[in-house]
Specification:
Mean pLDDT: 91
Low-confidence stretches: none
Helix content: 25-40%
Distance between the termini: 38 Å
Order of helices and strands: HHEHEHEEHEEHEH
Number of strands: 7
Number of helices: 7
Structural class: alpha/beta
Strand order of the largest sheet: 3-2-1-4-5-7-6
CATH topology: Rossmann fold
CATH class: Alpha Beta
CATH superfamily: NAD(P)-binding Rossmann-like Domain
Strand content: 5-15%
Number of domains: 1
CATH architecture: 3-Layer(aba) Sandwich
Shape: globular
Radius of gyration: 19 Å
Length: 260
């Protein structure tokens, strides 16, 4: 028997999540705007988890198109999506998960010279999932200047152990070569703390095989300016390390958003 005036809440796609976080936290998540820089192996899974958690607005920043060698690790990479912009594919997927999410896409290779295109003060959280040091530094600097929480992904390539990931302040990291470089550069910039995801697994040196080297065999089938063949070192990758990194990052973002 229902009492007069009783409000009956209908089930929705986030009901199971609400059982863990509660209604107030879910409202915070739904009103949040998160920017994800880099929609690759790590960023793609972070976006997926944020969308399935009910984040209200997602900004996706990436200038790459999906290529054949992305299929081994990127959630948006399918034979049917090869050649399409990652942000476009991700947006379509997000809206199929939840049509109410607002998705803003930017076909932009984020670097210091393109950073003025973004107003960091409009975000509630920023995820750095790109792989260039200068770009990562600029994201962190802009987020810190705007007093917006930021989490930065350190290297996920050339790793095999997803259990070796840790969340820490950048100055408490060890083993990770990228984290070492970032510590040096952030110290020079006067930035005292940054939350990062890093791995304590020692990087594996990729097997040298000229027959499958992307340095000499460009199979990207894309026309973007920044091709993988221009990279000094092309890391090995797999399905289970970047995905775990992205999911851990998304979990940290949701935890921090609901703790406000």
């Amino acid at each position: 028997m229902r009492c007069k005036g009783m409000v009956i809440k209908m089930l929705d796609q986030f009901s199971r999540t609400e059982l863990l976080f509660g209604n107030e936290a879910m409202l915070k998540i739904s009103k949040s705007r998160v920017a994800v820089f880099g929609i690759g192996g790590v960023g793609g899974y972070a976006v997926e988890a944020l969308a399935r958690s009910g984040v209200g607005t997602l900004d996706l920043i990436d200038n790459d198109k999906i290529c054949l060698t992305n299929l081994n690790r990127q959630i948006i990479a399918l034979h049917s999506t090869i050649g399409e912009y990652k942000v476009d594919v991700a947006k379509k997927r997000i809206l199929d998960i939840c049509p109410d999410i607002k998705v803003n896409t930017y076909k932009c290779f984020f670097m210091p010279d393109t950073s003025d295109n973004f107003d960091f003060t409009q975000y509630d959280y920023v995820i750095d999932a790109i792989d260039t040091v200068s770009g990562k530094l600029e994201i962190i600097k802009r987020a810190k200047a705007a007093d917006i929480p930021v989490i930065s992904a350190m290297g996920a390539g050339n790793k095999l152990d997803p259990k070796a990931f840790r969340i820490a302040d950048i100055y408490d990291t060890k083993v990770c070569p990228l984290a070492r470089v970032m510590r040096y550069e952030l110290r020079k910039a006067g930035i005292k703390d940054v939350k990062v995801l890093y791995s304590e697994e020692k990087p594996i040196h990729p097997i040298e095989n000229i027959e499958i080297s992307r340095k000499n065999n460009n199979i990207c089938q894309t026309d973007t300016e920044r091709k993988c063949t221009v990279r000094k070192d092309i890391p090995g990758s797999n399905a289970f390390v970047p995905s775990v990194a992205g999911l851990i990052i998304a979990g940290e973002v949701i935890k921090d958003l609901t703790a406000k």
